[in-house]
Design brief:
Blueprint (H helix, E strand, L loop, with lengths): L1 H16 L9 E9 L4 E2 L1 H7 L6 E13 L2 E2 L4 E7 L15 E7 L4 H15 L5 E8 L1 E5 L6 E5 L3 E7 L11 E2 L8 E13 L8 E2 L3 E10 L1
Parallel strand pairs: 6-7
Antiparallel strand pairs: 1-3, 1-14, 2-11, 3-4, 3-5, 5-6, 8-9, 9-10, 10-12, 12-13, 12-14
């Protein structure tokens, strides 16, 4: 009996000492962001832009797999276009309340649409504190490589194209990721905007801001 008890006790110790598997995220996918100010820069460039640019942003999430509020959203996307009260990320000014528009994937059903809107609010936080309108649009998102190349289109209103950074993008020699991504759950690399357009109505402003080190391209998981 004593020998049997020892043999039973050893496997229990092994199980108790085994590392627990980390919980898988309930939803994950691709993340894109672009602002009207550089996000990969040095203090000299950032100081010259603060309060003058960087009040506008385009943020996009494309779900690869996952569930939100009980609804599976695989392959669907949602895009937020934001106009803030100050440079986003500036620690000395409050950009909120920001005004925003939401573009929801036209392929979504009514139930999926509702879940996408709730998902965007959760991921954007105060960035989406004042949504002025929600529109259904065809949304195309493509991650072209693993180094910052991507493209986004939401109807006729939103267009974004990026490329990865290269040596010629280091202008002052002390660049860094000066502003983190606007979505805290994003794992993204900085990139250069080749095209950054918002030409829609509803925010009282349109913009075109290409050729800046102003984008993030990567993924999200929550």
């Amino acid at each position: 009996m004593k020998k049997s008890s020892i043999l039973l006790f050893v496997p229990m110790l092994l199980l108790a000492g085994a590392p627990r598997c980390l919980a898988e995220p309930s939803i994950s996918g691709d993340y894109l962001e672009a602002r009207t100010s550089d996000i990969y820069t040095g203090p000299c460039f950032a100081n010259s832009e603060v309060n003058l640019t960087g009040k506008e942003a385009i943020v996009a999430w494309r779900v690869r797999q996952g569930v939100w509020d009980g609804v599976r959203l695989d392959g669907l996307a949602v895009v937020a276009v934001v106009r803030a009260a100050a440079t986003l990320g500036d620690p000395f000014a409050d950009p909120y309340p920001a005004k925003s528009l939401l573009f929801v994937d036209r392929k979504a059903t009514a139930r999926e649409r509702q879940a996408l809107v709730g998902f965007a609010h959760a991921m954007g936080g105060p960035l989406l504190g004042q949504v002025l309108a929600v529109a259904d649009e065809p949304i195309e998102v493509a991650i072209e490589d693993g180094h910052g190349g991507a493209s986004l289109r939401a109807g006729d209103a939103v267009e974004l194209k990026t490329r990865g950074l290269h040596h010629g993008d280091h202008l002052c020699g002390n660049e860094e990721v000066y502003y983190p991504p606007l979505s805290a759950s994003a794992d993204a690399v900085p990139a250069v905007t080749l095209v950054h357009l918002f030409r829609g109505a509803g925010l009282g402003k349109t913009w075109s801001s290409p050729g800046k080190r102003s984008a993030f391209v990567g993924s999200f998981a929550r």
